[in-house]
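Ticket #294: bound-state structure for pantoate.
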Amino acid sequence: MAAVPEVQVLTTPGEVRAALVGRGRVGLVPTMGYLHEGHATLIRRARAECDVVVVSVFVNPMQFGPTEDLAKYPRDLERDLGVAGAAGADFVFHPDASAMYPAGFSTRVEVSGVSEPLDGAARPGHFTGVATVVLKLLNVVQPERAYFGEKDWQQLAVIRRLVADLNVPVQVVGVPTVRAEEGAAGLALSSRNTYLSDEQRERATVLSRALRAVQAAYADGERRTAALRQAGLDVLAQEPELELGYLAVVGPDLLEPETLSEHPLNRVLVAARLFGVRLIDNMPLDIVSGEQTP
Ligand code: PAF
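RESOLUTION: The complex was predicted; output attached.
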């Protein structure tokens, strides 16, 4: 068996800066840990495109609401080091909360507009926490490229807005969602899937099946968002345990018009609670041209 390459763990911004001096093009993969094949795909992409790859593993308290799963969010650093190393990471930046938010910390990064609908409405303060920590990570690591999964489509749009608005010198790379291939085939990979049993995961494929039904209606020429949504809602109605957060058919601004105009960034997004776990997923509507990035 091939040995997994050693990954060096860094815990402070100062250690990161010292480790990266003179190392060439830096790629950053920000994560909250409990790495899965979706993260490994981001790391492999960074490995292929950069000289040095840093994976951050930080469960960011600022992006969790008071009733959310911060305390029980899955954590396993040893396992993460194995996954990150096997995928080609050189460093894992694993700060504790006091290294990221020292006493007296009092800055918040608010991205208006794109942060406001969908998950922004359902999780007040969430994207402020994401934008704040991502800007901090970009400032600490100063990567040339930063890699994010399209599974968090709205997050990716918020980060692109932040980087453009604040002239952050980084190229944001969006990477298509990785889905389970067997068992719960089609389920978007997520660290939160670990909260579900095998049977529950299989039932959670109702989300990707609903998104596919919307894609199929769009491919048939339907452009009225109410009719497109209905195609997805009919599938979601088959799962009695599902509590719908939203099913939205949106254009490039993440807003839902009455009728979609042709655009490669048209997208369908869903959020739902299943067996007590909040899951999100999304798919492109313009599937002819493949997965698109905002
Ligand atoms: O997508 C995530 O895992 C997190 O929101 C991120 C981007 C690492 C910020 O904490």
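RESOLUTION NOTES: The mean pLDDT is 96.
TICKET STATUS: resolved
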